[in-house]
Design a protein that fits this description.
- With about 280 residues, this protein is an alpha/beta fold.
- It has two domains: about 1-50, no CATH class; about 55-275, P-loop containing nucleotide triphosphate hydrolases (Rossmann fold).
- It is about 55% helix and about 15% strand.
- It has eleven helices and nine strands.
- The strands form two sheets. A five-stranded parallel β-sheet has the order 3-7-2-8-9, with helices on both faces.
- A hairpin with a 2-residue loop joins strand 5 (about 130-135) and strand 6.
- The protein is elongated, with a radius of gyration of 21 Å.
- The structure holds 2'-deoxycytidine-5'-monophosphate.
- 2'-deoxycytidine-5'-monophosphate (DC) binds near residues 87, 91, 158, 187 and 239.
Amino acid sequence: MVVEKGGKTEIKRLSLNKIGCALRLRSAYHLGKTQINLVLHSACTIFAKYMEKKKINIAVDGFSSCGKSTIAKGLAKKLNYIYIDSGAMYRTIALYAIKKGWLTETEIDEMSLKKAISSIKISFKTNAEGQQETFLNDENVENEIRTLEVADGASRISAIGFVRKELVRQQQEIGRKKGVVMDGRDIGTVVFPDAELKLFLTASPEVRAKRRFDELVAKGENPNFEDVLKNLKERDLRDTTRSESPLYKADDAIELDNSDVTIEEQLEWAIQKIYP
Ligand code: DC
């Protein structure tokens, strides 16, 4: 599993912080350039090691379109963590199966999918605009996996035991070194049951359908609101009632209904939970 992370912004941020520190050190202690560099280098190394050790995993679960990815991406950016959209992984497997003709409106060829599952390569890369994109066997499929057809296929395919087993294995591998914010349905319950912070997001179906509708319109599609709402309710039902890892709130997860809350308020609230 390859997860590339854009480091340019972080380097820029650290460099600006360093310049600020250097100016303060020079005026307060009258240090020369070499001494300032030495002090800053040691301080940065100690701080980086401290932050590395303090890294945690954050699980963000909840229903479709309730803003999980917005808060998960925001947290990953603020904390300089890796963000993983686990739903994109299920969508990618669904897209692969659709392309192969193994996933139709009425049937799933589980035998063929089972044989191929471990050879399907899913990876994430950050593009020039800082947005994470999903790749299937090195082909950028970010737009293709966001259609209603693939969403519906992902919901059906995610109920299959061997699909979940393989993707959970890959997700746990990514989280081994900590410093990951992952969103999905079973992150706090199955993937990272020991996650140091678990969030469970909710919002009314109508609010969520409106968000999804707006996203599709922004992408140039021409969706029907009632279809979007129906698709979302069907997926909610399937996600919560399937026998394999159904969606539910982990006992130690903190619930947030974000129907009327801005993203900045949500991020501030979540950061407070990490650094009270
Ligand atoms: O979050 P999303 O809408 O992109 O997810 C697509 C489908 O994948 C959704 O119907 C539920 C499923 N899914 C899952 O079962 N477990 C996850 N950890 C993430 C997504």
